[in-house]
Amino acid sequence: MADITPKLVMQLRSKTGAGMGDCKKALVNADGDMEQAIEILRKKGAASASKRSERAANEGIILAKTNDDGSIGIIVEVNSETDFVARNQAFVDYVETVGNAILNNDVENLDQLMETSSDGNKLIDLHNEILAKFAEKIEIRRFEKIKSDGFITPYIHTGSKLAVLVDVTVINPSDTQQELLKDIAMQIAAMNPSFINRDIVPKEKIAKEIEIYKDAAIEEGKKPEIAEKIAEGKLNKYFQESCLVEQQFVKDSNLTVADVVKQVGDDVKINHFLRYFLGEEI
Known about the structure:
Elements: H1 6-16, H2 20-29, H3 34-52, E1 59-66, E2 72-80, H4 83-86, H5 89-104, H6 110-114, E3 117-118, E4 121-122, H7 123-133, E5 139-147, E6 151-156, E7 162-168, H8 175-191, H9 203-219, H10 224-242, H11 257-264, E8 270-277
Antiparallel strand pairs: 1-2, 2-5, 3-4, 6-7, 7-8
Helix pairs in contact: 1-2, 1-3, 2-3, 3-7, 5-7, 8-11, 9-10
């Protein structure tokens, strides 16, 4: 039987972040073999995950990031049960590792993601390590990856509960252009638009909105022709609230987002955006 010294236990703790008691038990079971003890702790994390599967994980953080030239962007939500764990540096580092794995690999689902490697370790093993460290349910809830012929700007709101990616037809933007693109990303975070512009709003959605506005006006006693005009006016208001480029710019109410896009460049267009808010319905 190997001598399990406090120093050896501390070494295992520094490698895995697991509790002192768990580290000592793992070393005893591994007869002092460090690598085997790490494997034992990983398996313990995987086993405990199944016990936590029914528990709610409503806290966590959202990460958005891009590669160096802004041609690839990812956004990912990783959940924990408590904000205490979400703010722990080990959890933050784990989410960063997950984000890099998505950014650097072509993965379409969680199973593929878990098979990717980081510094020689499979992500599934790192996931089990974080489970062994914290007695909570921790899960990768969702992620997306986009590629662009232009430039993708990430934005993470303070607290990492809300993040955005916005893809714009700009190549090698200047510092000034990047600041404007960040403003547009912040606009998306703050105002939660549903569409880029009114041209891509589904016809069924428009018809439904008009029907709702007309019915409401008729209920108020308006004649059908008057109700039609009221519905048209409210539909324009709907577009101004729901379509990004028609929204009033939050940093300058005299401008629309379309005006800000023109400041980036006369021929610039917004291709796509993604907005994740922690815990929202998917």
